[in-house]
């Protein structure tokens, strides 16, 4: 179980996984894909080794909503966001993913950009960070993707992260003690980035996709109309179902003895912590960018469960305009209506608060602040706001 391809989907699970991927994204096809996903889950144990967007990934069918969609319905996962970003990708693209989770955005960008691209995936959950490193190694992408296992906020220090066992996409920073020493990245976190921003190689944990077995009996592979298809089609790997997959991340993602971040002591706990939280290092975005040696950010994606303003605002307020992200993908969930007022519709401006108009909506407040700093809201989906830097304003006019 120490290399990609050793945990292939098999039997009925493999069949229904292929069926779920047959359908094009969007309504009404998602209804049929969801039915096939339900049938596949009955026969699939955690985790499975598959190809998504032409990449070799180890994913868990039952752990989170987002990961499940990437596995079973990759065409539908954040479809509008990926279409928007696909039109703006360019050679040597620099992408920073705060709250990377299993790396959906990071790996999709990797699959669509050339050798000169740079990707920094920031994820505080130790088990998810280990999974990211495993999948990076499986694709031989150490020179393009770096992992930082830390939370990001408006100051550095140590905080506590909730661990949602039912949905890993809803982990969040719940406490943030005073910072011990401003401007310093702890040595244990610094080692995951070399001066050029690359993560340390981990050849012991996974083999490259070229050496992993692949079966050709899965149904029609995914095509991605929003971008140029890869020559390597998506299919399910391997044909050795003898091994029984285990759900413990410590066994699913073997540690690199040379890497202090990936030792069993920092792996995802086999059992939920008593209070549902784990202690994690906290860095500022400026510290991460400096350690990675980035001279520009073509796109910054931030999904940190309501903590987005504390990640973005301090960075833009202190960074030179040359470092301001050219594109922003920011989680901006619409608030649930709490009164009789109808829900606001999508527009080119921040949506008005729904229900109780006296209750400020943090997402709208952040969007308004970004507009004042020269960003244009080009699209707002059910979950995210997509911004483009139009006319940067170094000082806030409303300050």
Per-chain topology:
Elements: H1 11-22, H2 29-41, E1 48-52, E2 55-59, H3 65-72, H4 79-86, E3 94-98, H5 104-112, E4 118-122, H6 126-138, E5 145-148, E6 151-153, E7 157-162, E8 173-175, H7 187-190, H8 249-252, E9 277-284, H9 285-292, E10 299-302, H10 308-318, E11 327-331, H11 362-372, E12 375-380, E13 384-389
Parallel strand pairs: 3-4, 3-10, 4-5, 6-9, 10-11
Antiparallel strand pairs: 1-2, 7-8, 7-9, 11-13, 12-13
Helix pairs in contact: 1-2
Distinctive features:
13 strands; globular; four-stranded mixed beta sheet; seven-stranded mixed beta sheet
Protein described:
There is one protein chain. This protein is an alpha/beta fold and 399 residues long. The chain has one domain. It has eleven helices and 13 strands. It has helices spanning 11-22, 29-41, 65-72, 79-86, 104-112, 126-138, 187-190, 249-252, 285-292, 308-318, 362-372; strands at 48-52, 55-59, 94-98, 118-122, 145-148, 151-153, 157-162, 173-175, 277-284, 299-302, 327-331, 375-380, 384-389. It has a seven-stranded mixed β-sheet with strand order 5-4-3-10-11-13-12, sandwiched between helices. Strands 6-9-7-8 form a four-stranded mixed β-sheet. Strands 1-2 form a two-stranded antiparallel ribbon. β3 (94-98), α5 and β4 (118-122) form a beta-alpha-beta unit. α1 packs antiparallel against α2. The longest helix is centred in the first third of the chain and has 13 residues, at 29-41. It is globular. The termini are far apart. 48% of the residues are buried. Residues 179-184, 186-192, 194-270 and 341-355 have low confidence and may be disordered.
């Amino acid at each position: 179980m120490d290399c990609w391809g050793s945990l292939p989907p098999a039997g009925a699970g493999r069949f229904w996984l292929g069926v779920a991927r047959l359908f094009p994204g969007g309504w009404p096809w998602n209804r049929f894909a969801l039915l096939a996903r339900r049938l596949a889950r009955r026969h699939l144990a955690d985790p499975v080794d598959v190809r998504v967007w032409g990449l070799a990934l180890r994913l868990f069918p039952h752990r989170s909503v987002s990961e499940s969609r990437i596995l079973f319905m990759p065409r539908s996962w954040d479809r509008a966001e990926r279409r928007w970003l696909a039109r703006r990708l360019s050679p040597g693209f620099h992408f920073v993913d705060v709250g990377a989770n299993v790396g959906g955005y990071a790996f999709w960008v990797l699959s669509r950009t050339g050798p000169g691209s740079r990707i920094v995936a920031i994820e505080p959950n130790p088990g998810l960070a280990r999974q990211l490193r495993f999948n990076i190694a499986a694709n031989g992408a150490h020179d393009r993707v770096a992992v930082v296992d830390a939370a990001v906020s408006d100051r550095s220090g140590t905080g506590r992260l909730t661990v949602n066992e039912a949905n890993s996409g809803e982990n969040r920073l719940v406490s943030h003690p005073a910072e011990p020493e401003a401007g310093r990245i702890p040595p244990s976190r610094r080692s995951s980035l070399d001066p050029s921003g690359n993560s340390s190689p981990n050849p012991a944990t996974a083999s490259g996709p070229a050496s992993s077995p692949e079966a050709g009996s899965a149904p029609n592979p995914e095509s991605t109309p929003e971008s140029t298809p890869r020559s390597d089609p998506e299919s399910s790997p391997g044909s050795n179902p003898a091994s029984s997959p285990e759900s413990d991340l410590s066994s699913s993602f073997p540690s690199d003895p040379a890497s202090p971040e990936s030792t069993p002591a920092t792996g995802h706990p086999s059992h939920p912590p008593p209070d549902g939280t784990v202690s994690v290092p906290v860095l500022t975005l400026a510290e991460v960018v400096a350690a990675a040696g980035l001279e520009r950010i073509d796109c910054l994606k931030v999904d940190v469960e309501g903590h987005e303003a504390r990640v973005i605002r301090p960075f833009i307020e202190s960074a030179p305009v040359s470092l301001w992200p050219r594109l922003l993908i920011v989680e901006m969930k619409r608030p649930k209506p709490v009164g009789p007022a109808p829900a606001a519709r999508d527009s080119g401006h921040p949506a008005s608060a729904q229900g109780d108009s006296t209750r400020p909506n943090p997402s709208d407040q952040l969007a308004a602040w970004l507009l004042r700093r020269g960003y244009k809201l080009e699209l707002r989906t059910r979950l995210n706001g997509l911004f483009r830097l139009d006319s940067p304003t170094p000082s806030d006019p409303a300050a």
